[in-house]
Amino acid sequence: MQTTVTPTHCPYCALQCGMNLTPAPDGTVEVSERADFPVNRGALCGKGRTAPAVLASNVRLTSPLVRSGDALVPASWDEALDRIAAGLRRTREEYGPDGVGVFGGGGLTNEKAYTLGKFARVVLGTSQIDYNGRFCMSSAAAAGIKAFGLDRGLPFPLEDVPKTGCVILVGSNLAETMPPSLRFLTELKENGGTLIVIDPRRTKTAEQADLHLAPRPGTDLALALGLLHLVIAEGRVDEEYVQERTVGWEDARAAAMAHWPEHVERITGVSVPELRETVRLFCEPESAMVLTARGPEQQSKGTDTVGAWINLCLATGRAGRPLSGYGCLTGQGNGQGGREHGQKADQLPGYRKLDDPAARRHVAEVWGVDPDSLPGPGRSAYELLDALGTDIRSLLLMASNPVVSAPRAAHIEERIRSLDFLAVCDVVLSETAALADVVLPVTQWAEETGTTTNLEGRVLLRRRAITPPDGVRTDLEVLHELAARLGVEKGFPTDPEEVFEELRRASAGGPADYSGITYRRLAEENGVFWPCPSGETEEPADRPSPATEPAGAAPGRTEGAPAGAAATAGGPAGVTGAAAAPAGSAAAARGPAGPAGAAGEPTGATGAAGGTDALASAPERPAVTGDTTHHPVTTTGPTSYPAAALGTTSQPATTPGTTSGPATTPGTANRPDAAGGAAGDGRAVHPGTPRLFLDRFATPDGRARFVSVSHRATAEEPDDEYPVLLTTGRVVAQYQSGAQTRRVAELNAAAPGPFVELHPRLAARLGAAEGDPVAVVSRRGRAVAPARITAAIRPDTVFMPFHWPGEGRANTLTNPALDPTSRMPEFKACAVRLEAVRS
């Protein structure tokens, strides 16, 4: 019997590791290595390797459930959908559109996230939509927009990391959260680079570091400011770069000078010699990077904290230069794409702002509605959940489990229980789904096609490998059926590629421009980095006119294209002669031409320059299964996000011994004869943008913005009653709220339950031995878990993983104090006390 191998991607973290799936004769699915995908080169962690276990019928939902008294009982799809439509309609009639809330997830594909946002605003008319990604990357996103004018987690591919001179990794434990990515740090050190890890715990990642700094939780802002102070005091500022490429330096400089080393040592616990050594290691190499994750971001001052780390990169001339800069390590599987296309409270597709009149007009035209009919921005994630049962009476929830994952979780569980009506779409009966009035079983990653966008900004195609069980439908089918029942019979297709074609049009001209990306290109090129505009050259409706663009914006313009259309016609400045094919044209569908004009094949044996330089490392691409037919679409919206605002897509010279493909000269990588490629009609397809900001930043004047920030305490400092700090995080064998991974026997054997990690001195004061139950008490509640005693954590800090419900639920304790800009809760630091639990 011939078996079909389907190349696809892991359902878990934002690496979106490549894998091959093969249906087995016994009905299971086998995972095998997919070495052609450059992010993981075939490597998988235990979660990815065991991901098919959740596809089993005895693990997942296979029938709709409706509430009958205290129980959920099986029901037909018609009955379940009718109940949901009736519940949402009743709430709208009684309380108005904003009486209905919608809560999405960072694991939804781009097509689902886009459709969910459209459903909320067009069908329900509600402003009350947000998603669990607010709890992950929102502070870094807000800081990136302030500084650079654009948020894309990493402005460079991961393959650049081993080639830089120094990496400061702030608040990330990659060895456990993204194990396949650890090799980039290993290769960094093998190439002679330096790794500095900043974490209050000596994690498996910190063990790999040349220098480990262990600051007190909640003091990362002071640490970054202290490092910048030393950069200034030691004469290490790149004055020419600051003068030419930034604004706001004087105010930021003054703020940093108020954070002298001894003062910072008292705040953070990091010694002055360690501070000085960090500055030396970061500043001496020609190139260096700062990468942040949830540690500095999940704070009530997370936006300012990330801004301070960006300031360090700007002052030293790192941002927007090859093999250098600031990046955020996005967490959830589609955490990047999920925050780009409309399921955030303040957002429209293409990373447009909901309160921007031009953005509203553009998206409304794509949707065929009156711009005035679109609601305004709504509440952020925690604020939305906190309003359940009061202002918000009904909730439609997809792909999220806030009963476990939200801060102050016992309170949020209480709010969810107080709803008049709750409908949940999920693959398993999560702790939140168990509280619902209706639960709909939906397809999983291996049973549907769709796109995700990984932490690099690389848009990827997940492919359907198997048929879902009877009784299970896709989220797109659910939204289609609900829209029809609520009176909107058109505009909610069930085919993911049709949805993606509409998303392309809606995103055209926005910061996250996908209009030049097609399913066929994704299949042929193994992913495309956004922004990737189409070839349309209409004047933008929501960007500055050419007359207001600064000098230097025009040189990248393709000959014959109107001024200001550099991005739409030829990609970033420095591109020589590249002109993109119109969206939906045959040229765009065919993808890049190869060395002999064969569509879709890159030039060069080891990879393609211009955005796909490491995407073709295997001699042959895996066969693409399923329907990859391109459905032409005419793009009429604005598609002119200025290319020069984003930097070139040219590749830095390859370090000897690396595997990233041929070296290229900056400004030449996107020639029509390079892999970005000429289409069959002689016009080039935009190659995508692997590297941002190399020429200018995405601000109106092309300059990055320093932010003037000063250290402030956490929202809840320790005191006599709660003298210890709690920080939270993940373990290698579980993922997020554990709704899926806790159903996999192999993963549960490796990580069977919660624990409290504490220092031996703290354990001795408590009288606790290894494995003894310890109660952790905050102002919001009490959690109990076994003690795990280790000198790898600060004596004033305890750590709990957040994957479990029940007595050991870490988020019972966490503080919902919100960052004023990003509305991120302070998961990473709150005051607690410890109590011994006597039998």
UniProtKB/TrEMBL annotation:
<keyword id="KW-0408">Iron</keyword>
<feature type="compositionally biased region" description="Low complexity">
    <location>
        <begin position="647"/>
        <end position="676"/>
    </location>
</feature>
<keyword id="KW-0004">4Fe-4S</keyword>
<dbReference type="InterPro" id="IPR006656">
    <property type="entry name" value="Mopterin_OxRdtase"/>
</dbReference>
<feature type="region of interest" description="Disordered">
    <location>
        <begin position="530"/>
        <end position="687"/>
    </location>
</feature>
<dbReference type="Pfam" id="PF01568">
    <property type="entry name" value="Molydop_binding"/>
</dbReference>
<dbReference type="InterPro" id="IPR050123">
    <property type="entry name" value="Prok_molybdopt-oxidoreductase"/>
</dbReference>
<keyword id="KW-0411">Iron-sulfur</keyword>
<keyword id="KW-0479">Metal-binding</keyword>
<protein>
    <submittedName>
        <fullName>Molybdopterin oxidoreductase family protein</fullName>
    </submittedName>
</protein>
<dbReference type="Pfam" id="PF00384">
    <property type="entry name" value="Molybdopterin"/>
</dbReference>
<dbReference type="InterPro" id="IPR006657">
    <property type="entry name" value="MoPterin_dinucl-bd_dom"/>
</dbReference>
<dbReference type="Pfam" id="PF04879">
    <property type="entry name" value="Molybdop_Fe4S4"/>
</dbReference>
<feature type="domain" description="4Fe-4S Mo/W bis-MGD-type">
    <location>
        <begin position="3"/>
        <end position="59"/>
    </location>
</feature>
<dbReference type="InterPro" id="IPR006963">
    <property type="entry name" value="Mopterin_OxRdtase_4Fe-4S_dom"/>
</dbReference>
<dbReference type="InterPro" id="IPR009010">
    <property type="entry name" value="Asp_de-COase-like_dom_sf"/>
</dbReference>
<feature type="compositionally biased region" description="Low complexity">
    <location>
        <begin position="550"/>
        <end position="639"/>
    </location>
</feature>
